[in-house]
Write a structure and sequence with these properties.
alpha+beta, 10% strand
């Protein structure tokens, strides 16, 4: 029994000290990561002019879109990457990786937003200078460049240890599981806080372990590539560099032609990205997504097309990957929730928020243990007037919403009612005709 007590005491101290030292950063990473799950939606909400409300017609050609970008930025030479929108309401983002304005920053490309239906350049922004990309940088590098990037990886390892020690402290033995899953609302505020902390930690522990593990692998891509047994498998990597061996001529392959050739290898695929050649030895890199490929925004299907000859130089097909590289393709979409669909993204959002709640409830518990705050009984009677007012306002709002909904749907409801009435008239006539043919009347039936 003594050995068990000493072991539990060690686990408790490790869990406590990790929370006191790194808990704030856990909460910060959780909040910023949960917001980043919906980065594109938030960016569209903050910048409505970047969302196409009523899509009309077909997309302009890739060559025309690229020409519009070069007119808007005539002094930027080298390679550009066109990222296709994932919905009819989205715009094309054209990336310029190393602009001179942010050349010495860890990652701060130029993002040019283009309307795909009109080839109009709508906005030009730098990564890190918008609200959503600033939050992403906070999550991935704590706004501290390469040092912050490494620090986030270390914090991921520490978070794994913290979650494991928390699970160890929660474990009550097989006979005590039922009691450990309860929340006692009559034993005071501090006990309620502690029960909530334990139960919340248990519920989100699997998600936090997945997020922390994948986050570590993203922070240290060398570990990922070693485990996968291949190179060019990290997020954003494109495989080995390939250069053109053809002789430059006056008839270079266009963007549209390069895409057409690339689709020949994967006719059922969807275009995701096109990277233009840089210099005479540059080559087109066409990024496609095959049906069933887990990555939505950054799929691994890639075709390299020679700029001068128009021939396929190399093909990367993830369906032919061995088990190691295949697992590596899951890391990014699993970390972002992309691989789990809308429900998975929501679960990841909640898990990120829970890190903040765990930090707050844990700190309250510690402050109580050292005597900085006092316990108090739960008085639910004070909540009754608040709940009553809230219920009254909710009922009023709900009634108004229902009336507004009925008002807006009234034309459709009227049309539907008339259509149903006409259908009933035709049905009755059809039944009467059938009865007449059979020589029967309603009285006979």
């Amino acid at each position: 029994m003594v050995a068990i007590t000493k072991s539990r005491l060690i686990w408790l101290k490790v869990h406590l000290y990790l929370a006191l030292i790194c808990g704030f950063f856990f909460a910060l990473l959780g909040l910023s990561g949960s917001v980043s799950v919906y980065r594109e939606e938030l960016d569209g909400l903050l910048n409505p002019h970047l969302v196409i409300e009523q899509p009309q017609g077909k997309y302009q050609s890739l060559d025309k879109i690229m020409a519009a970008v070069k007119i808007a930025h005539p002094q930027r030479y080298g390679s550009w990457t066109l990222e296709m929108p994932q919905s009819p309401h989205g715009m094309i983002t054209v990336w310029y990786e190393k602009p001179r304005e942010t050349y010495f920053e860890l990652y701060a490309p130029l993002m040019v937003t283009v309307n795909p239906y009109s080839a109009e350049v709508v906005a030009s922004r730098f990564w890190g200078q918008t609200v959503t990309t600033w939050i992403v940088d906070l999550h991935t590098q704590l706004q501290q460049g390469s040092f912050g990037w490494q620090a986030v990886g270390v914090l991921g390892v520490i978070l794994i240890v913290s979650v494991v020690t928390g699970l160890g402290l929660w474990w009550p033995g097989w006979r005590g599981i039922g009691q450990a899953l309860k929340i006692n609302i009559n034993a005071g505020v501090m006990q309620l806080n502690f029960d909530f902390h334990r139960l919340l930690g248990l519920l989100v522990a699997p998600a936090l372990l997945i997020l922390a593990s994948t986050g570590v692998l993203l922070s240290y891509p060398g570990i990922l590539e070693s485990l996968a047994g291949g190179s060019g498998m990290a997020h954003g990597e494109t495989g080995r560099d390939i250069v053109s061996t053809a002789i430059p001529n006056n008839h270079p392959t266009s963007l549209e032609a390069a895409e057409f050739v690339a689709r020949g290898s994967f006719p059922r695929s969807v275009l995701r990205r096109v990277t233009t050649p840089a210099g005479d030895s540059g080559i087109y890199r066409i990024n496609l997504r095959q049906p069933g490929e887990i990555n939505q925004r950054h799929p691994f299907t890639t075709v390299w097309i020679d700029r001068w000859s128009g021939q396929t130089r190399e093909v990367r097909n993830p369906s032919q990957f061995s088990i190691g590289p295949t697992i590596a393709t899951w890391i990014w979409p699993l970390h972002t929730g992309e691989a789990l669909g809308p429900k998975g993204r929501l679960a990841w959002f909640i898990a990120g928020q829970s890190l903040f709640l765990l930090y707050v409830t844990g700190m309250v518990r510690w402050l109580y243990r050292i005597g900085k705050i006092k316990d108090r009984s739960m008085d639910f009677s004070a909540l009754i007037p608040i709940a009553s007012r809230l219920l009254k306002k909710t009922s009023s709002w709900l009634a108004g919403y229902i009336m507004l909904l009925i008002k807006r749907l009234q034309p459709s409801l009227t049309i539907g009612y008339r259509a149903l009435q006409q259908w009933l008239i035709r049905y009755q006539a059809k039944v009467a005709a059938q009865q007449k043919r059979n020589g029967k009347s309603d009285w006979d039936l």
